[in-house]
Records
---
Amino acid sequence: MAQYFVREGKQVVILVPDKDELDLIEEGLGTLSPSPNVTIRAVRARNSESADTMGELILGIFSRAAKGKVLPWYNADIYISVISSGQELPDLEALHQADPTKPLIFFNLNLETHRGDLGLPAFPSKDLHYRFLSNIKPVYLLRTRQYAQTLSRPPFILNYQGALFRTYPGGYQCMLDTGNGRYRRVETSRERPALSGFKDIITQALDVEDNDTLASLRRGAFSKTWWEKEEGWAKESSDNWRT
Amino acid sequence: MRLESLFVAEQHERRSPDSRLQTPLAHHCPIFLTATFYLYYNGTAAVMRHTWSSIACLFSLLMSQSTIGFLLPYPSGSFPMARPHSTPSSQVALFATTVPRAVGLEAIPEADLKAADKTAPPSTFFECTLQAYNAAAAAIKDGYKLLEVEFPPLPAAEMASQVTYIIRIFLLLSWDLKVVTSSSVGDPCRSCISCNVIAFSSTPLLAAHRPPAPTALAPPTSTWRTRWPSTSCVKASKW
């Protein structure tokens, strides 16, 4: 993907969380510039590299600042962040605040999983979603989900799967896997369906329900995750994450 | 450096969609600037525990900073906003320029939206990356700065086998065509595309992850054999 941007004449910086990850990559690849105009860098530089003064350098040894500072890269046109965990998302937020004009791509970071971790011990607070993660636009989304449905008639258990697919500027397509790697488009919406809503859409497309009461009992109470509930939308700084 | 921190703290407190358009408080109010320096030097003097130094610092501060602070006019909105720092701190915005707002979907023609709605899921990894790039490039063009790209992970071996498969197929084709067109006679299997593909497909690399064979490389039909009569290979004659 970085190569495509390079063809446009852009400088791409691939960001890994910290210097240790960077050392591992350098050890594996043998270089931090895998191709022209593509550079691999750490979001958070080491304290020895980022300290402005001798005092910061010394104090950093005994404090949290030992992990270094988040420094933007002046020659970058586009940042692509990879392999960052939920605990490192605040670093990416700091990077975006320091350099807000450069696009920052969250590449396969599983943000949905990280949202679920917010608020747990040792993880950032849920406010991070309202403050920062809600601004992230899902431009390309291909998420597959596997489900199982119990039936009152043979075969009693039905395994099926679907995919939520979106390419900007298109809408969110709910697709049912029909086998042999083929998908049938079931519904397209401008707004991102909730996880439970996506399951309902896919299940209804199966058209195997024999009793509405039994189906609702099997499905259970309709619930959404905390970041999908409408009550929290007022706290969001943007609705980009669901449009 | 400490003054910068104050600017940042003030910016963080007043963070809003238009906060980048506002000048720092210290630039509006020279008294605030003076007080900041006063506290700074006073604090330093307290650490030094030296009365005379403290008095000297305070005196010089009042004489210089307050005068300069009052004399320097920074009316609202006139201070240059794009102000790169020579030693950038991670907490300070490098260029406090205005970030253009994204256009939103309503600005996109309906026909483009409908066409994008019908995009089919990718069938290969390369198609997947190409679609991801096209989507990201379109969003960047529309002014979005924070983008999410997500697709299911593929095993590294799968990706490697696909890449290697394509490269080797092209190499084999080019080598075979060169041999056949030069009418070289020798080991018949060395000039037989089919045998090379068979030998290649049985390699351990493809044994685990074999992608679908291209239709052009399917076992030859009788028409194909008549077109290439020089093929005297035993394996090919069995087809």
Note: The radius of gyration of chain B is 36 Å.
---
Amino acid sequence: MALLHSLRSRRLWLGALSIATVFGVYIWITNQPDNNPALLPPILDILASFKTNLTSGSLLTALGASLFRIAMGFFIGTTLALIVGCLVGWYKTVEYLLDPLIEALRPIPPLAYIPIIIIWFGIGEFSRVLIITIACFMVCVVNVIAGMKNVPQVYVDAASTMGASRFQVFRTVAVPAATPFIITGYRIALAAAWTTLVASELLAAQNGLGFLLQEGRRYFLTDQVMMIIVIIGGCAFIMDRIFRKIQAHLMQWSEARE
Amino acid sequence: MPEILVDNLTHTFGKGEPGALTVLDKINLTFESGSFNSIIGTSGCGKSTLLKMMAGLFTPSDGQMTLDGEVIEGTDRRRGMVFQQDAVFPWMTVAKNISYGPRLRGASKAEQSEIEAKWTEMVGLRGFEDRWPRELSGGMRKRVDIGRVYANDPDVLLMDEPFGALDAQTKERMQSDLLTTWQKSKKTVVFVTHDIEEAIFLSDKIIVLSSRPGRVHHIEEVSLPRPRNDEMRLTEEFLAIKRRLWGMLDH
């Protein structure tokens, strides 16, 4: 227990150390007399920008808009991926039908769909959510399929010989056995959601974190750009942490938790 | 009462194709109800294949098997199986593993707890009900596996080298405990092993298969008295059977 505790705290300390180092180096550079604050704004300017945008309400509006897009795209994308992935991974007929299609679409980066989506649906909310949905679906479905295909045969045989129907085997064996893969798929989908969110907002949005980035570039507000980058990093980090907690809870049974 | 009949069974992998491999050739066997039977033979004699066919996990290319006169087709809870590999579901606690079968058929919470209590006790896992399988040793996981199959109350118990991966001491302990459990319920058991001593200690009847293709080479009736104990492993009668069977397996 003591060993585990010391390991955990060592991990925490080292993680904090690397972040502190980056901050330290940044502060040191921005304090140099020949630093150009338009390129590397001092931390205080970034904090000031944070305060301005917070009090004006523009930051919270942008954050709200972005989080809504992430939530919608992530939820729809991963839910579809779970359904399609389970069917493809478990039923041979569905696999033969859909696997070539998924494999063909897989290498296409989700951002490549942006032009065609804009042509079809314009630059509205629907298009932005759609891009995130596609991104989440593609990365997640592959993991769900892999999970279903890696269910050890002996578990399937054991359940069958105890009288489980094909559907019962699916529900009580295949899905739980595939959980580690499925959760990984969800986590990768979350990261993909953030990546595509910013890209879609950079291209076409009137609000959102990506819009504030674009605005900062246009008016040369480097402190605002920096501030948004930190916000995005922080949000994605917190979400991933929450996800890890859920994962650790669902995976109590597994040898390889964490 | 459940009696298994293997009727002129032949199995060829890739039948009708070039490179077809006959693993079992014209097997005729009777497993009497309530008896303990072992099938021994060197690796590759098709003994595991034969057992999996009894479980209904795949179909023989020729001939058939019947349980109480009914042709065996597909899996059925009446024919329970313990596998060589670890088949305990790691995502369920010991208790949930034990009550898996009854739960499939919609057993109530009360029935489930009753079954869990009874079978964790029977296989010696009392106090471990809420543990995850990852927290147990290999031998204990095998106990979960056996308890789970028993709790499902099959007519026939098919065991495919269940103790193959255990150390010698654990193995002997598990054999004795298996006999104790079996004595209480008298299910028909078909036990596949390559361990001669294990087969003699456990069985009423030992079937020796020759290899490639597997044919019934010899049937040994073991008349050692029951209940059996570890001292019997050193009796003249036990050793005589061991010598006889040892000569039959090509080493």
Note: Chain A touches chain B through 21 residues (CB under 8 Å).
---
Amino acid sequence: MSGACGGTIAEIRSLVSSGQASAVEICRAHLQRARDVEPRVKAFRALLEESALSQAETIDRDRREGRPLGPLAGVPIAVKDVLCTRGVPTTCGSLILRNFVPVYDATCVARLRQAGAVIVGKTNMDEFAMGSSTENSAYEKTCNPWALDRVPGGSSGGSAAAVAAGEVPASLGSDTGGSIRQPAAFCGIPGMKPTYGRVSRYGLVAFASSLDQVGPLGLTVEDVARVLQVIAGHDPLDSTSAPLPVPDYLAALGKGARGLRIGVPKEYFRSGLDPEVETAVQSGLKIAERLGARLEEISLPHTEYAIPTYYIIATAEASSNLARYDGVRYGHRAHDVHQMGPLYVRTRTEGFGSEVKRRVMLGTYVLSAGYYDAYYLKGQKVRTLIRQDFERAFEKLDAIVTPTSPTPAFRFGEKVDDPLAMYLSDIFTVTLNLAGLPGMSIPCGLTRDHLPVGMQIIGRRFDEEMVLRLGAALEGEIKFGARRPSLDGTS
Amino acid sequence: MAIAKQEVRHIAKLANLDFSEEEIGRFTQQFNSILEYVARLDALDTSAIEPTSHVDSGSHALRDDVLVPSISREEALANAPESERGHFKVPKVIG
């Protein structure tokens, strides 16, 4: 079975439902592809061959016995290792969770299974999703399939690389400040952060609870829509999940861009933007115009305050969320410590990597007595201003388009010693998490070095339909999908 | 607002983390460059602005107070580094 690998969800789904290929054959083909490329890409923390094949067998049996097949029947999907999977280790890229085996599935994972998806593995990530290059994984470095000497982006670097390398047609990531969109851009695939509240966070290991959101990455915008359709919707187990109906996302895809009003914020095209990224995004905008959209330069005046605001709020929430790792109920426990206080300290000092410690420290500082008002409260107030920028802009717009990241994929080691430089690679994506808005990166071109460039489409809250609609229209003209990485290049 | 090594040590204590002197030095340096960057927020007058703690998704957090099935005691303890007789086991807290 060679046709299955590299196929989109729709193609795989139709092979399975028509009986042209069994789910087991498709699963085997993808596992074989993964075994072939993993030594170079290292997208996965773990491949789940046995359980994947048994899920696939169930799909085949359902088909033979005439039971209805789910919308993702037989589709191999990879899941970021930050999402709890029952009976399967979930490490979050951290040593402190090295042996953690969840006793329940995250809601989005459970929904994937119910839809017939075959979970083929858990993908590598920056420890606790803190990072923009996946270099902060305690376990391995994932390589960018387009240039193996470069990072795949992060923190969902494994989920993006697995799709770009043809190991799976789609994956789940999580996005707190750009962790789906930036790796999607670096790896040349679409990836979406839905509106805060659109997808349940139950079973997503928490980093910054007011910013975290689960979302799909896929080979095409349609793949993203098909996965979102399954994972979106209210969940009583997540008190912040929105009790709203989920629209038919596939129906939004064919509507084109004619007449759409697109805002282009000038603050996102200033110094620091790589000229090749700017060229690719501008050419994408020209395509939007050719498709009948109206472009309008807008201003989001508080953009320059987004990164400092984000790093106050995200680290504050992280320091609180990560207080739970104390060696008592789960995770690593330091050996031979016979007092409670030292047990906490030793356990955490051994279990956390340096970026996680840095953020826990920063978060502790901004929440500490005497600094709360100056930092945390101030950050929350500026968050209001950033949110209002978007609210005002969307009064007369359907979508906003920006670059996803100021640069294409950078080399390993380039930013690891300079935390601030690493933080700045999220400059165009953190604003959406602060404002709770949906956004998707789609590939819009390649640099001279053959590195993908992403453009970010931003929608109103809960208007993923518009984001997908514009994304599909642009994708149809940009025709990036025909270009795939060779997996043998460096740059 | 520059931060000194002594203060970094204090934060480490609050965060239940331990660092070598070298790490404290490095953290202090990195903290100061990050905080210097964060200080650009001081340029904004936010005295009349309401804070946003999270963007409301319109959810209703409260549900009826009814019993629903939950994980078993064995499952709850399945990942415990140490447990005994159905409890999490920790070192003596009070001497």
Note: The helical segments of chain B are 5-14, 21-38, 73-77.
